[in-house]
Amino acid sequence: MSASLQGSLMVDVAGTWLTADDRHLLRQPQVGGLILFARNIEHPRQVRDLCASIRAIRPDLILAVDQEGGRVQRLRQGFVRLPAPGHIAQAASGDAAQALAQACGWIMATEVLAAGLDLSFAPVLDLNHGRSAVIGTRAFGGDVGVATVLAGAFIEGMNQAGMAACGKHFPGHGWAEADSHVAIPVDDRPLETLRAVDMQPFIRLRHRLAAVMPAHVIYPAVDSGPAGFSRRWLQGILRTELGFEGVIFSDDLSMAGAHVVGDAAARIEAALVAGCDMGLVCNDRAAAELALSAAQRLGVAPSPRMGGMRRRAFVTSDYKQQPRWLDALNALRQAGLLEPGA
């Protein structure tokens, strides 16, 4: 199978090795990616072996993980415990903070690539307004200028390691108080406010982002449905108004914030019709199979944009011997951003 072709559905697997059911699912051409969670991960070598077994079946799949730093960090044992993005601005300012953010992005991407994966869904470009518990310190802060600069430095570090960046959660999840994993968040602010504040990191960094992930948030002043199912948001604003040409990944379509659209078949169809290039259906194999049937019925062609999400560099397992690795870790340690002994 050509390594340039990917389907429009990203799925997951249950454990640390592939079952016969997993292998059958991954062989379906509509499946274009796989995301790992903590349950799939024991240590670096096991992850490399799992990724190798996946690529033996489908070398074209995009292999992803959520490795932001702080509490959202799936790769743990044998990996650096990175600080939450929001702690960087608390530890330093100006050029020093940018250097730390870049070091975090480079370390994260280096470890993820060395484990055999292509992509971490990072960075978070939401603003921390002190309202959303699900965002909080996952954001680089509440100040638009500072958050944008630090996120840009983090992206630079990712790119230097050989990883593309995916900004989330467009147009901004930081104001809505509800957690879209378990509820349907609403942000009642007018579009003018969103453009002037929460959208700014996406606007300013759009040419440096290879991908964007929209929020499962309803912005009723703009559209009655969540942003990830909205042609107004994805086609009218993100594509046309902002001129974004990269990949659009849906957020997990199994989350409660997506259920407003209907069952998994309705969700994947709505996401793809709205403009997502790839829809994620995670933590629910029955839903993934329903979404797969819908994708097969729709017959959506693979997006030509998806190739840009593959790893851009091969990182060997001896990366910890590199001078840059040692320098980056030392910088974070001196700033008090690493756990003792890390």
TrEMBL record:
It is an enzyme of class 3 (hydrolase). InterPro entries: Beta_hexosaminidase_bac (IPR022956), GH (IPR017853), Glyco_hydro_3_AS (IPR019800), Glyco_hydro_3_N (IPR001764), Glyco_hydro_3_N_sf (IPR036962), NagZ_Beta-hexosaminidase (IPR050226). It is found in: Cytoplasm. Its EC number is 3.2.1.52. Residues 19-287 form the Glycoside hydrolase family 3 N-terminal domain. Substrate binds at D66, R74, R138, K168, H169. It catalyses: Hydrolysis of terminal non-reducing N-acetyl-D-hexosamine residues in N-acetyl-beta-D-hexosaminides. It comes from the Bacteria. The record marks D179 as: Important for catalytic activity. One of its GO terms (molecular function) is beta-N-acetylhexosaminidase activity. Pfam families: Glyco_hydro_3. Pathway: Cell wall biogenesis; peptidoglycan recycling. Its main location: cytoplasm. Belongs to the glycosyl hydrolase 3 family. NagZ subfamily. Plays a role in peptidoglycan recycling by cleaving the terminal beta-1,4-linked N-acetylglucosamine (GlcNAc) from peptide-linked peptidoglycan fragments, giving rise to free GlcNAc, anhydro-N-acetylmuramic acid and anhydro-N-acetylmuramic acid-linked peptides. This is Beta-hexosaminidase.
